[in-house]
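Q: Please design a sequence for this.
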């Protein structure tokens, strides 16, 4: 039996759920936690200083995605950004073009998009679901067939949180805008930002969500990019902060930390991409060759550099996560933001996996802090834990 790991040796492989704060990000935030407590709306020096810091962060976040800083609106995170884009644009549509009441989303969207779309049904919006193939990728020609004169909004994620598949967003946005330039195209880039290059002009999207805590920044802060020529309604009304798109005194240290995290992510994008991709490929190869009855979920070619989603036949994913946790390995079954619901993965289901495959699947999401030794240790422990779980299973099927 493998010795259980003490707290000091935790191997954290859940970086798609959240990432550790970068040291330089903490240092950038500290003065604003300790001394620079002014309100950015105040006209005095303390206020002005903080306002300048926010504007600086706005530039840094804009640079990460190729936007203009006036197109960046700070929010409380990816959840709020997605809500703001969808509800904010649908509210605008209700006032300006009532006939357009159709929303197209993919079947593998994050709950923040799925639940928001379902909410919008109450206001007369109709949802059309775009299927994915067995690799978790949407088919552009199938998408084209869904568009019609009633389509008002399209929301398709850049990269999936469970299986890491990257969608052909620029192609989909082009199809949309060639069909009708008034259709609003939103993309949830929470998982893709900081890991793959993003340029909002090349993507041709109208809005895009990002979140700070996925890129080694603080939690509770994110941003929505909104293309200059597009209009949406605010969800939070009040003092008119964030150009009246999102009122409320700004989360100053969060925004400052987010800005620094964005700057560092952009600077190290290529280096981090290469490191993560080689770590990812190493882990995938090692798991698949060392443990029988395993398969990789999601496209290999069009995939985030840090996502490893594997089916382990004959085991229950929830039990596997608990066992791994006891041995100091932290992974997840998929979306951290919805784990409380204990529901089975709608993403794997949409890709056509059967019940056994879905329940035996877990996600390892790598971070730049993970080492090769940690990955070796993970596979060593996994092999023992899987064998043990399979042995305890009443079915005891042998996987060659
Ligand atoms: N969208 C995706 C794809 C995510 O993975 C997440 C969180 O995991 C969110 C949105 C929500 O982001 P936040 O945690 O910043 O609210």
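A: Design:
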């Amino acid at each position: 039996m493998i010795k259980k790991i003490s707290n000091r040796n935790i191997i954290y492989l859940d970086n798609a759920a959240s990432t550790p704060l970068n040291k330089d990000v903490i240092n950038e935030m500290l003065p604003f936690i300790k001394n620079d407590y002014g309100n950015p709306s105040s006209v005095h020096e303390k206020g002005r200083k903080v306002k300048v810091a926010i504007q600086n962060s706005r530039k840094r976040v804009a640079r990460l995605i190729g936007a203009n800083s006036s197109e960046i609106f700070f929010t409380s995170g990816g959840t709020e950004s997605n809500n703001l884009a969808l509800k904010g644009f649908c509210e605008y549509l209700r006032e300006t073009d009532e006939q357009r009441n159709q929303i197209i989303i993919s079947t593998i969207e994050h709950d923040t998009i799925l639940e928001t779309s379902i909410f919008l049904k109450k206001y007369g919006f109709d949802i059309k679901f775009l299927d994915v193939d067995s690799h978790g990728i949407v088919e552009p020609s199938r998408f084209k067939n869904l568009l019609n004169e009633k389509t008002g909004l399209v929301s398709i994620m850049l990269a999936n949180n469970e299986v890491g598949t990257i969608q052909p967003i620029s192609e989909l946005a082009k199809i949309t805008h060639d069909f009708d330039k008034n259709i609003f195209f939103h993309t949830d880039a929470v998982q893709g930002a900081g890991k793959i290059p993003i340029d909002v002009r090349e993507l041709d999207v109208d809005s895009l969500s990002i979140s700070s805590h996925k890129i080694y920044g603080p939690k509770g802060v994110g941003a929505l990019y909104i293309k200059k020529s597009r209009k949406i309604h605010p969800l939070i009304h009040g003092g008119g902060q964030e150009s009246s798109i999102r009122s409320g005194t700004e989360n100053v240290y969060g925004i400052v930390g987010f800005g620094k995290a964005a700057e560092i992510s952009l600077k190290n994008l290529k280096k981090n991409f290469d490191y993560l991709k080689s770590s990812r490929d190493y882990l995938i190869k090692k798991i698949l060759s060392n443990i029988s009855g395993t398969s990789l979920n999601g496209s290999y070619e069009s995939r985030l550099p840090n996502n490893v989603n594997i089916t382990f036949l004959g085991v229950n994913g929830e039990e596997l996560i608990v066992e791994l946790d006891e041995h100091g390995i932290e992974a997840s079954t998929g979306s951290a933001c919805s784990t409380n619901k204990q529901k089975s993965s709608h993403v794997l289901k949409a890709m056509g996996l059967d019940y056994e495959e879905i329940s035996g699947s877990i996600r390892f999401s790598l971070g730049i802090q993970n080492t090769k030794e940690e990955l070796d240790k993970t596979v060593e422990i996994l092999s023992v834990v899987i064998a043990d779980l399979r042995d305890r299973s009443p079915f005891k099927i042998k996987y060659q």
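Q: Thanks. Anything notable?
A: Residues 269-290 form the longest helix (22 residues). The longest strand covers residues 307-312.
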